[in-house]
Amino acid sequence: MRADVVRGADARFIPLGGGVSRCVLANSPGLMTVEVRFEEGAVGAVHSHPHLQNTYVLRGRFRFTVGGEAVEVGPGDTLAFPEDVPHGTECLEAGALLDVFSPARADFL
Amino acid sequence: MRADVVRGADARFIPLGGGVSRCVLANSPGLMTVEVRFEEGAVGAVHSHPHLQNTYVLRGRFRFTVGGEAVEVGPGDTLAFPEDVPHGTECLEAGALLDVFSPARADFL
């Protein structure tokens, strides 16, 4: 069994436009880990999906909207999104989020 | 809908002995995010479980053993563990891991 490792230095980020880029760091059908990088002012538009999501703030500052409520978070803070809850974010200081999903977001592949 | 946020500054880490401490940052039956802190030299003994696991290295350096193979990782590196694969770690430089599980590790609650 070979360990399945993605080195941060080797991670290839896909530009999504508007100052946002994304890299899938680990993936199986039941669990996916994704790093998303934001430039200051970049926006992740409000959206929803049936996948469970946890988001850990690696760097920077973000204002999230979750179910219509605003919350500002920074490094080391964690958000949990239940299924189908509308959520979005605005990046207040350039940074990165670690998003994990169950099941995997097949639309990211 | 109130956003479910755990502030890093408020996270309460439970000492597990041997220089390891743990805090569950987000939890639902289908998805759990856990930060585990290690002092230098601390060991997470080889074990296995049926839960899917991804591990992101937040800080420090670690030597993992996965399915009998050794791999050394540092900040920004990600490991993916399939179900039931024996894995363990030794901390080479004090740091922290972000472990995510699906389903949740009920034994952590």
Could you explain the architecture of this structure?
- Two copies of one chain form a homodimer.
- With 109 residues, chain A is mostly beta strands.
- Chain A has a domain at 43-109: Jelly Rolls (Sandwich), CATH 2.60.120.
- Chain A is 0% helix and 63% strand.
- Chain A has strands at 4-6, 14-17, 20-28, 31-38, 43-47, 52-66, 69-73, 78-81, 87-102.
- At the A-B interface, β1, β3, β4, β6 and β7 of A face β1, β3, β4, β6 and β7 of B.
- β1 of chain A pairs antiparallel with β8 of chain B, so a sheet runs across the interface.
As a percent range, the share of strand residues of chain A is: over 45%
**How would you name the CATH homologous superfamily of one domain in chain A?**
Jelly Rolls
Given as residue ranges, the uncertain stretches of chain A (5+ residues, pLDDT < 50) are none
User: Largest interface by residue count?
Assistant: A-B, 45 and 44 residues
Structural class given helices, strands, pairing of chain A?
Answer: mainly beta
Please report the total strand number of chain A as a whole number. Answer: 9
The coarse overall form of chain A would be globular
Mean pLDDT score of chain A: 95
Number of helices of chain A: 0
CATH domain class of one domain in chain A: Mainly Beta
Distance between the termini of chain A: 24 Å
The rounded Rg of chain A comes to 14 Å
Q: What oligomeric state is this?
A: homodimer
H/E topology pattern of chain A? EEEEEEEEE
